[in-house]
Specification:
It is a single chain. This protein has about 190 residues and is α+β, with helices and mostly antiparallel strands. It has a domain of about 130 residues. It is built from 5 helices and 3 strands, in the order αβββαααα. The chain has a 3-stranded antiparallel beta sheet, with helices on one face. The radius of gyration is 28 Å and the shape is extended. One of its GO terms (cellular component) is cytosol. It comes from Mus spicilegus (Mound-building mouse). Belongs to the CEP19 family.
């Protein structure tokens, strides 16, 4: 069988157009990506995403190089820039910003010469709240960070109506092992005011 240029073009055209978006957006079904794993590569620096294409069901790996990032860079800003980058935005929709920020902290720790264990300890210290810490002595940025950590912890531990262990009216009787201690304000009468 002889292949004519028009036959070859008609057979190859659908294959050639697979990598391009069609002219009519209503004909193009938006690709959905399901994020499976997200990690970081230290040398050369990159964020690696393992995702599944919803239409094909195949697992794929996407390597997103990290450029212009140094040991002095702001991890929050770098994570926001990567997540809002038009090339990676559709892939990173399901990845939380906090997770990307944590990956950038690992990358910055590596650039500063810290080991993985030291960086993990630093992250643990930054994400836990010391009950003995005086929050009045913190600057506004650190205070906002501590408040967001407390809000996340509250949301995580909160019981909602749809939880299986939810009980509407909980009554708790506290045992009185010892004698009750009285305070001076307990003995003040209403007439003293």
């Amino acid at each position: 069988m002889e292949t004519t240029p028009s036959l070859l073009f008609r057979c190859a055209l659908p294959v050639l157009l697979q990598g391009f978006l069609p002219v009519y957006p209503e004909l193009h079904e938006k690709m959905k990506y399901i994020a499976k794993k997200c990690g970081v590569r230290f040398q050369p620096p990159a964020v690696i995403l393992i995702y599944e294409n919803e239409t094909e069901g195949k697992s794929r790996q996407r390597i997103m190089p990290v450029r212009n990032f140094s040991k002095f860079s702001d991890c929050t800003r770098a994570a926001e820039q990567l997540k809002n980058n038009p090339r990676h935005k559709s892939y990173l929709e399901q990845v939380p910003l906090k997770q990307l920020e944590k990956l950038f902290v690992f990358l910055r720790g590596s650039l500063q010469g810290q080991s993985l264990a030291e960086t993990m300890e630093q992250i643990r210290r930054e994400t836990t709240i010391d009950p003995e810490e005086d929050l009045n002595k913190l600057d506004d940025k650190e205070l906002a960070k501590r408040k967001s950590i407390m809000d996340e912890l509250f949301e995580k531990n909160q019981k909602r109506k749809d939880d299986p262990t939810f009980v509407y009216d909980v009554e708790v009787d506290f045992p009185q092992d010892g004698q009750l201690l009285s305070c001076s304000w307990d003995s003040v009468s209403v007439d003293d005011f």
